[in-house]
Amino acid sequence: MFKGFYTVTSGMTTQQRKTEILTSNMANANTPGFKADQSTIRSFPDMLMSAITTNDIPTKKGLNTVKATPVGALNAGVYLQESLSNYTQGSLLETGLSTDVALVDGTLPVDETSGKPGSIFFRLQHPDGNEAYTRNGNFTLDGQGNLVTGMGLYVLDRNGERIQLQNDNFTISPDGIISDENGVQVAQLGVSFAANTDVLMKQDNGLFRMLEGEALPSAYESQGVSFSLQQKYVEGSNVDAAQSMTSLLSAYRAFEANQKVLQAYDKSMDKAVNEIGKV
């Protein structure tokens, strides 16, 4: 009976965590550059239950033998194994702002370890001095003319330096070259390449960082990588709102089903303690 409690509870906990992931995806369906999270649910290994009995042997010494009678398999419940981000390209949205820029994926090599293609990101300077990465190209200029994100993080160029501009009257070529209003080249927008996206750690506000805090290699210098940049556009979220809503409803129903089973277990336990125990 108690094992049933644990199994049902694990199912409810798993569905609750899945609901939280789907809710976050839905909340960021309109966030530029947001990458939807996907969850993987697995079951614990089944346990083989056996009933242990003894058979008496009619001898002078009264010997007996132990006998195991198979009862059947018992499922130990499920758990949410991991949550991974989906790095597929989102749709491009035109904004008309010169400070907005979108990354457009070209050829991205498939990583041998993960079996998935890599991904490219804008280079940012994190407040701790290391680098952070994002696909959200909704940039702006601060009071000193530095190109920054909406959170105030500095956007870095190809050499890892801050990008400073006189005003927002500048152009960005498809290969990332930033030119001022006089056509003078100021910098090349920094773009990094992650060959294995599983080593990235997702943080708030669409930021990604390496697990150990190290920097990603430049996408310009990575072999087999091709991409382009589109000024006055931002990359939209790759969240499939319809599919996320369907999955969210399924998770709710699964949670409610486990809840009803838990209530049935509770009623059975109540009878076992308060009624059968009196006999």
From TrEMBL:
Subcellular location: Bacterial flagellum basal body
Principal location class: other
UniProt superkingdom: Bacteria
Any single GO CC term annotated in Swiss-Prot or TrEMBL for this entry: bacterial-type flagellum basal body
UniProt domain Flagellar hook protein FlgE/F/G-like D1: residue ranges: 118-179
Domain Flagellar basal body rod protein N-terminal residue range list: 5-35
GO BP terms: bacterial-type flagellum-dependent swarming motility
Family: Belongs to the flagella basal body rod proteins family.
Protein name per UniProt: Uncharacterized protein
Organism annotation: Lysinibacillus odysseyi 34hs-1 = NBRC 100172
